[in-house]
Amino acid sequence: MEEQKEVLNRLQRSFHSGVPLPEQFRLAQLDALLKLMTENEDQILAALHQDLNKPKFEAVLSDIEMVTNEICFAINNLHTWMQPEYVSKNLATKMDDCFIRREPLGVVLIIGAWNYPVQVTLSPLVGAIAAGNCALLKPSEISQATEKLLAELIPKYLSQECYAVVCGGAEETKKLLENRFDHIFYTGSQPVARSILQAAAVHLTPVTLELGGKCPCLIYGNLDIKAAAKRLVWAKFFNAGQSCVAPDYVLCTPQMRDDLIPAIRDTLESFYTSEPQKCPDMARIVTDRHWNRLTEMLRKSAGKVVMGGGSDQQDRYIAPTVLVDVQESDVLMDEEIFGPIMPILTIETLEEGIDFVNRREKPLALYVFSDDSKVVTTVLEQTSSGGFCSNDGIVHMTLQSLPFGGVGASGMGSYHGHWGFETFSHRRGCMMRSWVLEPINVLRYPPYQESSLGWLRWATTVKKKGWGCAVM
């Protein structure tokens, strides 16, 4: 634990010395991170395969490309992001420079997750570097091979004065959180997030929490069933369902369910063959503990398994599984599934589906499949979620120009692209005053005069447009 303190002291000294502040330093570190990704792609893919049996195709899309795109987007836009943002002024400040200056927060802690252990550790780091911070990374100990690889590579490519990796489990993380940081960025579960909030409260440390929740997929109205099944199955069973933005459950009418099930069955066989366990494109459950949790949920569920249901503990395999006749009170609806299990629940009307979603905690993502734009708009306007995507799943989070984050129980704060830069920046309001109007300042100095108050109110009032009245 003393080693943690020594590392943190080193990062704090570097930050207070101004090492990570210059634009050229930030660009150099982002370029070095890009080299880390490109020069070690095979090692990264091997680690992800060892941890999750992740297919190369999925690993490249979700961990390699997501991070490299994030880095390049930051490099291309950093100069613009760093510029002062000039703001509107009133009559009393017409001769002054008034602007917002983005400044780094200091030394930030980034705690990664195991399901996309490269992406959710290094993507926030891109925002932290771009904003001029020092950063301490804590990869997930559950994805052991990736944790070890990141601990080896980060010091080789990035400045050891400003960036470091610490490893360990729950006890080491608990000790780490006893230290004062300038920001904590956490990706993971809600129970751990609560403990992080409690630890952060001791130092009044701001936090960003990227959590999860049960992301609904509402399918309603007319649509291409075969295309919908392909997009739904891909989003649900990508990474064996171990995605915080995976569709957690499906809501549809009984007729839609009866049409959808054969399309899902055909799609599953098309994607993963009739023997998914032998298919190289099917990932595995990360640990025995997570496998046991999922198989226990399946065992206790009152839903009817219509596809899949098989499992193999030695291989940490669970077949892509679909259940029907699932009720709201079912064990599968108690918590985020985070595995290759898809419950289908039935509704009679769109309003019933919206009400079902709104009775539960706000999800990290909400999906609606429909060719009717009115259906899509109604769901969008009458629900709340971290992100929203119609007629597809997951892909909304791949666009760097969109913020990614939760709301309510699914998290707080956001990142990706410019939003990551903003998350790790303090927006400092600045006013550079001129001496030109000093003769007029007599109006605000004692002894106070009623007539002076009237002039000051006139000079500082904001007019409400179109109403012809003043608003203070």
Name a few traits of the molecule:
globular; disordered C terminus; alpha/beta; 472 residues; 15 helices; 7-stranded mixed sheet; 6-stranded mixed sheet
How would you describe this protein?
The protein is built from 15 helices and 22 strands. With 472 residues, it is α/β, with parallel strands linked by helices. The protein has a seven-stranded mixed β-sheet with strand order 10-13-14-9-8-15-16, with helices on both faces. The chain has a six-stranded mixed β-sheet with strand order 5-4-3-6-7-18, with helices on both faces. The protein has a three-stranded antiparallel β-sheet with strand order 1-2-20. The longest helix is centred in the N-terminal third of the chain and has 27 residues, at 56-82.
